[in-house]
Amino acid sequence: MRTESGRIINLADYRPTDFVLERVDLTFELDPTETKCTSRMLFHRREGAATDAPLVLDGDELNMTGLLYDGMPMEAERFTEEDDVLTIRELPETGSFEITVDTVINPEANTQLMGLYRTNGIYCTQCEAEGFRRITYFYDRPDVLCVYTVNIIADKESCPLLLSNGNFLGGAGYGEGKHFAAWFDPHPKPSYLFALVAGDLGVVEDSFTTMSGREVVLKIYVEHGKEPRAAYAMDALKRSMKWDEDVFGREYDLDIFMIVAVSDFNMGAMENKGLNVFNDKYVLADPDTATDADYANIEAIIAHEYFHNWTGNRITCRDWFQLCLKEGLTVYRDHEFSADQRSRAVKRIAEVRHLKSEQFPEDAGPLAHPVRPTKYREINNFYTTTVYEKGSEVTRMIATILGAELFKQGMDLYFERHDGDAATIEDFVKCFEDASGRDLSQFSLWYHQAGTPLVTVSSAFDQAKGVFTLSFEQMVPPTPGQSAKEPMHIPLRFGLLLADGTEAQPRAIEGAEVTGDVLHLTKRQQTVTFSGIPTRPVVTLNRGFSAPINLHFEQPLADLAHVARHDSDFFARWQALNDIALPNLVEAARGARNAGEIAVDPLLADTLIAVAGDETLEPAFRAQILALPSEADVAREHGGNNDPDAIRAGREAVLEVVAHKGAELFAALFDRNHTRGGFTPDAASAGKRALRNAALGYLAIAEGRPDRAAKAFETADNMTDLSAALTVLAHRFPDAPQTAEALEAFRARFADNALVIDKWFSIQSTIPGYGALDRVRALMESPLFNRSNPNRVRALVGTFAFSNPTGFNRADGAGYRFLAEQILEIDPKNPQLAARILTSMRSWRALEDVRSDHARNALRTIAAGEKLSSDVSDIVERMLK
Ligand code: PHE
Ligand code: ZN
User: Fold this and answer.
1) For residue 209, how far is its CA from the centre of ligand 2 (angstroms)?
2) Are 585 and 654 in contact (CB under 8 A)?
3) pTM here?
4) Is 305 a known active-site residue?
5) Exactly one of 305, 327, 336, 389 is catalytic; which is it?
6) pLDDT for 36-68, tens place per residue?
7) Is the ipTM of this complex over 0.90?
């Protein structure tokens, strides 16, 4: 494993390779502990490269057993193998030559899950970002694209299935109980998109006819017996393929598309060409075992990986600094897909909730980095919510600024101009500039400047002149390595609502460019006047969250309530309620911290209850309204000196008021939104369940007894309702006998279903309060806990650290010490997993002094660990800087 190497990679140092890789032939002879890999690579020297430049190939913990030059053993003087790098000298100035590398790999011992590993008896690979170099020496970088032929030899009995990228060439017996298969991928690709899977799996098969009439075979491979649980994923795949044709004009390009679900996987899924590998959590679903949220995730991730075929695979990244070129764009595409499949407004609310609770804290803390970073130490640590989610928001802003038609033309140009390329963000942006004629240089700061911009707004109305004025001031906070920031191009969708329910149509607007309903902020300070306004308007700003910013606008509560009840944009309605709720919750937290009185504005509870009870609105939207800003949201708004116990106490006080005031309504919602008779995962049914379960949460508070939740648990006929009831029982009544009974019944019923048992761990690890840590420690002793399965570790340890603010941030610091212990234990086995869980401490500096001292000490304990991986040491050092 690569340990702590202080080496920093800089964008400015990018240069192409000295040699061009024309093709590669790989042969794998699979064995659990001694897999033989032979790689034959055909190279020629790049035109213009120095004539004495050596060939320098990347490796990582490799065991090289042979090296040939044009089929003959390489003379020892001509190569060195040092520090995970193979250097070959004295290579021809012109003409092609062949290098053959033999390596021996131990898949069984590969607990990092990078390169070739085994999971439940299945051989599988994970190569992004730099896993291929754990298989063989290679130009393991995304700008080296070539065609691959792959031969796989394996035991026939244990590995009836032999898969790789591209199209199947043929197979045959191979003596002594073995067989072999050959695959050829005609699409040149970088090594990170290589995949191999071998083993004994069940399959679900289907087909898709593309827009030009080609028939594509679709196969999803899962463990035997789990085939029925892959049906929804298959349906989502076909809908994704159709959608990408309809909306982006993109057609699939091989004869076969395969997905393999595995139970040990570091991330969500991987877009290997023609052979996606998935964490089985994002494939397997049926009503008894998957929640509505699981179904929505499966749909989104199946789509995401499929969409990568064009945005990622056919057009890939020049280097890893450009990661957002494929990830930000592909997240944007999967967001749009889900919005079209479900309720657009509700989807947007969920996206923004996620962005604010995950990306905003990252951007406000020690791990902040630009969407397109300029340096990194460990690329694995840049698969972040900033690159993914903020990257998607930046793409969305391009669409907002250009408008749908020009955005589409820019995308078409991108596909046409860069198909087959390893491209950059500059290439991408240029396509939109060329398609629209608009200068996007200021806009591009979104890729380069980290930090969430803060826009402060004030308004004035001159009744006599009929002039309404909005004054804006924007500020981008300093972030690591970037102290001074330039003003950004911020596109704000807006509306001026009049009392009669119509929107004002200003005679003239001065002080900013306005296109349609988009106001373009470009200066540090900007005053915009709207003339011809008859009466004082209510402003609705940043509709649809058109820009990922913090907005400070002291609007009268009545104005916010007006937006919450009447805006034409449902996202804006939710946002307005949020803007009423958050200051209340922050105040309540202050009150709780100072042991003072907690005042709750009656307008908040009344508006919430009115919206929740409005039968003209879709249930999913009302459920979102009832989910008050989370404790993490309050912490972010509070902004520093945070005391998670006070934040919770304050928020609980607000919940109490709402629960009691709305008890009657909640009881009615609970009864009326029962989805009986056959579960369907569609958005409308999911919305009803979400509303009903939100009501159950409030009723548990109002009634103060577990009876209703216990009954809901007993009668639930699907996993959504079952796990919601169990969560209410566990979180509201942790000591009630009904809770213990329900937890045990759940465990016994699902003991052999890993994904459901993960829920059992997560629900318990998020029980709030001081006792959570002991509970987590006890659960780690359970025979069901499995340290080597990333999903299980995330479900218990990760969920505790990320999603249990009061339990994890215990004032005595025991939660942080526990985390340090866990990180040091996980790191040697799976550094990526350890580093990811460690980021749960990214907001430690915003804690009040007692806690932040404990947090710092825990981080120092980690930093002092022996033989830290580069993954963990990179994160911990940035957090302590
Ligand atoms: N490229 C994958 C995705 O977003 C994520 C991933 C990264 C998976 C690294 C594994 C390793 O779709
Ligand atoms: Zn992706």
Assistant:
1) 25
2) yes
3) 0.98
4) yes
5) 305
6) 999 999 999 999 999 999 999 999 999 999 999
7) yes
